[in-house]
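Instructor's aside before we start: the two examples that follow are unrelated to each other. I chose them only because their records fit on one page, so don't look for a connection. First example below.
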Amino acid sequence: MDQGHSCEKKSQDTLYKIGMFAAMNRVTIKALRYYDEQGLLKPACVEENGYRYYLLSQCADLHQILALRNMEFSIEDIRQIQAGKPEKELLQKKKQQILKEIAELTAKLAQVESYLLEEQVDSATHVLIKSIPEVIVASMRVTVENYNALFELMPQMGAEMERLGCECAMPEYCFTQYLEPGYKEEQILIETCEAVTELKQDSKLVSFQKLPEIKEAACIFHKGSYDTFPRSYAKVLKFIEENGYEICGNIRESYMDGVWNKDKEEDWLSEIQIPVHKIK
């Protein structure tokens, strides 16, 4: 960077003070100083009094910087281009990044529109993708005649767990796993599970196992009677389909509040948890 008392003597081309150069290019003086500090666009020369001067030919360099910044290229990206890296290579990379962001935003928009179509939107209608931690469980695997028979197992299982000296984990996690794909009205193979603090010796009724973490599960809360579960299932399954996921494990129904601690059915609270992964 040239310095001296008279920049004009060092160039046959017209030199423009920073204020004029900024006005010509519709940028701020602050922006030009920033690009100078970052080494992207140095003034043609600087007087000893600190006045910066630019050449008209530097407008093209500035326009390239501004265009790349408008496309959200980083300062480091622009440095690489100025150092000789093919601009087309970085443009292709930026294109893929933008397409990915568009896909993600489109999925979010579809989710918002889906909620807007609901007659009533509340916390129980929202689907969330989250992980389910690894858990040690006491479990009973049985085939039940119908869904009503499912809850008749709970007291029997609780009594056996007490006999075996089981201590329930905190926070409590009681759930049923459906071990067959698809929906059945009768002869349903299920596994009812209760999170416990340690593995015990299996008995004739209850066995113990460590279930691995579920990396991604589509989850929805369900408030009210179990008879209305199909409505919540419809919502979460629609979410899975519309957002490019597929089911990859046993569906769980987690029971938080129910007949054992709530007098009214409308206060019962459950969560449907469906293991999923993105379709490539």
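Example two begins here.
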Amino acid sequence: MNTFALALHGGAGTITRQLMSVEDEKRYLHELENALQTGRALLAAGHSALDAVEATVMCLENCELFNAGKGSVFTKAGKHEMDASIMSGVDLKAGAVSGVRNVKNPIKLAHCVMKHSDHVLLSYPGAEDFARQLKLEFEPETYFFNQLRYDQWQQIRDTDTYQLDHSESPAPETNRQTPEHPDKKFGTVGAVALDLAGNLAAATSTGGMTNKNYNRIGDTPIIGAGTYANNATCAISCTGHGEFFMRAVVAHDISCLMEYRGLALQEACKLVVNDKLVKFGGEGGLIAIDRHGNIALPFNSEGMYRASCKNNEPAFVAIYKD
């Protein structure tokens, strides 16, 4: 029997039961399950891993709960700057976009960059010119407006502080977790998949950091840092403090540990997420699938919005560490 598998994430960080209402928990679990079943249905019907991860991420981009697409946070200039990337494990082709402002689904644009251009990464405003050329869907700024996100930005807009996703209180300039500022979340969404043909794919999308300045770009659109897929090893999508994930080249490092050292997926993920990243202050997690359909969902934070499924087995959906 051929195997298909899918995993997704909706961000990681200080996510605990104490900080989550019962109603919000139900909403998150519902949206994670909905996105998972969207991708699962495609894989079960024989669609490609690329199509499955794109559709899964689009579901999360269309939900205001997650910091990607519709739910993206505000920049220092009061705008939305979104990044996304996608990669095919069968031929190592990839597409990515950074800083796009009004594209409804940045992951769809990233896929178009891969399919319809000779490039890998396009940035604003050229990326949006390319989207218009392909007649992709755009939305006005009101579509991306979220009162909670706006209120968070208003608290720190006149400071040099940036904030990691939807923290309840402004983080200090160091952005280190402290008792006074305990709630820190890394808002990125992503999906990885193995299809019935044995091909792997990965996709990641984010709205970045609240009050980010200077057109800051994180690891999400950087192939090898936040996203990577290779049929010989695995597919990876990361969520965390992007600067650390870029410096550690996390996604590609896991693939290399499998290819050159012969580590199993779980071993490679554990070494990178719980050892290498931790040693120099990197916090977050990732989702991973190898070419045999094994799934890993490691994170070194308090929680990670995550879900996974394999063939017709029961789905796994979770938020907290326990």
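The domain at 5-320 is CATH 3.60.20.30 (Glutamine Phosphoribosylpyrophosphate, subunit 1, domain 1).
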